[in-house]
Amino acid sequence: MSSYKPEGLLLETAENKQHMRSAAALQEACLTNKTLEARAVVCDSEHNLVVDLGIMRGVIPREEGALGIIDGTAKDIAIISRVNKAVCFKVLSLEADSSGKPIAILSRRLAQEECRQSYLAKLRSGDVIPARVTHLEPFGAFVDIGCGIPSLIPIDSISVSRIMHPKDRFRCGQDIYAVVRSIDEAGRICLSHKELLGTWAQNSIFFAPGQTVAGIIRSVEEYGVFVELAPNLAGLAELKEDVAAGQHASVYIKSLIPEKMKVKLIIVDSFEVNNYTPTFSYFITEGHIDRFQYSPDCCSKVVETVFE
């Protein structure tokens, strides 16, 4: 696994804490070009980040706040949004402020540049990587793939079972895995997630006709109700009054038809659930995928992802 992790994962490590114990330890981090983490506590009116190092105050000047700030390809929200969160940085120098108190000058940009050159630039389509969810939009989930560098998982790549919003699957701050879907000419990485949640056969093996199981109603159509049994497995239930997308349900499994990738269901009951936290399990968490085939071999319709 890469040493370039999403922001926040270094914060409580013994090595990171060791470098915050004294000015000499910070100076050593400066001389050895070490990447450290601490919590940003203030963003001033000029968009310089103030970082709490414990033994002294650290400052990340605006132009050192993120990749792209200098050339205008990144907006200042990339800096402002870090307040009260962990930030990674390199120590540029130890100085004294106007009152004579020690202060560390830091650079988040340099930590991100090293991550991009030493880690992200070496990735290729099909590589499985760790990520941390940073924020959710209707069109997809933004994740940190190393040192605060963002990437996007489009909503249709989150799971096979369709969702109305990424919040149906993720929570901000959640640590997940993703697979590199594509890399454009500018080096921007787009991710996918559904290939790591298993095939139709891998998911359906946990269910059998005659069982009554838990599900989530994902959509209500004229011809039936789609119910999610697992993030990569949904079935079609007969229409039932007073059901709505987002409700939880107990469903009776009539049949599983692998050659058609179908699960036929009957809704026993549906109800609202408050404060629901989505959960899921991974079938793949590391390595590389050349091809993912969701559909069973016995199915005439082939559903697959080819990573090129």
UniProtKB/TrEMBL annotation:
GO BP field: translation
S1 motif domain segment(s): 126-194, 210-241
InterPro entries in UniProt: NA-bd_OB-fold (IPR012340), Ribos_protein_bS1-like (IPR050437), S1_domain (IPR003029)
UniProt-recorded Gene Ontology molecular function terms: mRNA binding; structural constituent of ribosome
Pfam families on file: S1
Keyword terms of this UniProt record: Ribonucleoprotein, Ribosomal protein
Membrane-spanning residues: none
Gene3D superfamilies, per the entry: Nucleic acid-binding proteins
Species of provenance: Acetanaerobacterium elongatum
Extent of the signal sequence: none
SUPFAM superfamilies referenced in this protein's UniProt entry, alphabetically: Nucleic acid-binding proteins
Sections of the chain in a coiled coil: none
Family that this chain belongs to: Belongs to the bacterial ribosomal protein bS1 family.
Alphabetized SMART domains for the sequence: S1
Protein name per UniProt: Small subunit ribosomal protein S1
GO annotation, cellular component aspect: ribonucleoprotein complex; ribosome
